[in-house]
Every structure is written in C-alpha cells, then in structure tokens.
Amino acid sequence: RFILTDDDIRRTCTASCFKIKQHHAVFKLWCSGNDVAFGINCDAVTVEDQLVLTAAGRDFLPSAEQVFGVLESGLQALAAHHPNETPPLRVASSPLLASGLLPRVIASLRAESPSMRIQLHDVPVPDLPTRVREGHVDLAIGTATRDAADLKAIPLYADPLMLVCAPDHPLARRAQVSWQELLDEPLVLLQRDSGLRTLVDDTLAKWSRRAHIAQEVTHVATALALVAEGEGLAPLPSYAISRAQAHLGISAGVAAIALVEPVVTRQIVAWIAPGAQPHPAQEAFLAQFRKMAGKP
Predict the structure, then answer these.
(1) How many CB atoms lie within 10 A of CB 196?
(2) Percentages (nearest 5) of helix, strand, coil residues in the chain
(3) Helices 238-247/220-228 angle, 10° precision
(4) First vs last Cα of the chain: how many Å apart?
(5) Burial of residue 147, with CB atoms counted within 10 A of its CB: 0-12 exposed, 13-18 middle, 19 or more buried
(6) Model confidence at 21: pLDDT above 50
(7) Mean pLDDT across the stretch 39-61?
(8) Sequence-distant (≥ 6) Cβ neighbours of residue 184 within 8 angstroms
(9) Average pLDDT score over residue span 91-120
C-alpha cells in the first residue's frame, strides 16, 4: 500500500503538469484504476492531504518520473511542431442546423479567414447544454429551451414556423392557416427529442383534442418528402423549408402557408458558459451566423 503526497507529485510532475494545474487530477485519474489494488480511497485524497510516502511508494517513484518525463518530451515536440496554431473553435448544434445552415456559415467564414479552424459537432438536441457545461465545446447552437437556463444564451435568429402541404391539398390555396385547424389533419412531425417538436407539441396542447400524428421522422428532408407524396402536413421552420426548396429539388412538390393563431417562432440561440464573454473567434462565428440566417 502506498500513496504519493502532493509534495511528491509536485516533485515528480514536470513543468507542463503545473502550467495546466492538472497534477492532482492526473494522479486521481491513475489512482481511480488502481485504488482497489493498492488500498487507496481516491475520493478521500485532496491536494491539501499530507500523506506518507511508504517504501512501496518510493519504489514506484522512479517509474512515475520516467512516465512524466516522456509526457513532457512529447508535449514539447508537439508545441514545437505547431508553435503558433490556435485551437479550433468547437461548435455543437442540432442535426437540423448542422445539416442545413451551419456548413454554409463555416464555409463562408473560412473563405474570409482561411486560418480559422472550426470543429462542428452534430449531437442530439437534449445533449447540447451538457456539451457546454462539461467543456466539450466552446458554444452550442439550438432552439431555446428551459433546460438550459443555467447557461448564457445569446439570441441569434427568430425563425417562424410555417405549414407545409402538398400543392393539391385544399389548404394550399389559403394565405394562412390556424394551428387549431391542424387537429383535423394527419401530421408529419419530427421526433420528440427535437427542440422543434417541443414547440409544436406545446402549441397543439392548447386544445383538448389530440393531434393525429401520421409519421414521426428524424430529418426535415424526410418530412418534406412525405408531405410531397400526400402523406400528411408538417409545421416546419421557414429556413428549413426554403433551403429544401432551393437545394433538394422539391420546390414544386410542396406549398408553404403561414401558421397563425398563434404565430410561433423558433428562437435560435447560442449557449456559452455562464458568466463568460464571447472571445473573438466566437464573435466572428456568431456574426456570420446572423448574416447567413434566413438566406435560402
């Protein structure tokens, strides 16, 4: 049985460990896989603890020094290979935005700033706030939700929902349709884990009658294809509709009508860590998003 004290860890870890303040976390990470074998209670070990280095610990110390020495050499080589390279901007978004608007935002931004690197993470909508909280991404973009009240939300775009139907449907000749009228129609909706589906469900819940859900799909393109074949009607964001009409070749297959009573908009926001201020790369990305939003 042995435990390295914080002083031992300070002596063993190289300078890079302390620059990133990870010496205790690294020790606990190693310890978590070996606590049973060595009788260590990792959860009870803190930086303030003054524990005794036993004979077994002293025997282990040269191996630890060798491991951290190799780590230091590797970090120095990596830094020398990329001396001035800035880390990428990590952006998470819903699959709907990741497959629609964001590729155009990234491409246009990189055309203006070729040295800028952006990593796009398309993740399920419920996971977006968690990615920001846990530090996996620098920002996340999605439909505003009550589940992210602890994060800082930066408004980006208000996208009104519209009704999509086949061109020969009786409602296609209308200038606008009320939400209540949708209760009489078969609906093609997105899956329940999407922010858009939450908006639709909350709006239709104002009436006691249940909606007739004909299909539940994952992608907007699938919903539009079903609507074009007369399999139902779909309330969808205006941007998604215009993009599909412009790029997916179905402009003649569907009609889009304004939805009213009430007018419902999808509020697109960017989440960052609470109390944080956007850094220049984030500000450039968000400005480009606002510039591109709404363009087909």
Answers:
(1) 23
(2) 45, 20, 35
(3) 70
(4) 66
(5) middle
(6) no
(7) 61
(8) 212
(9) 89
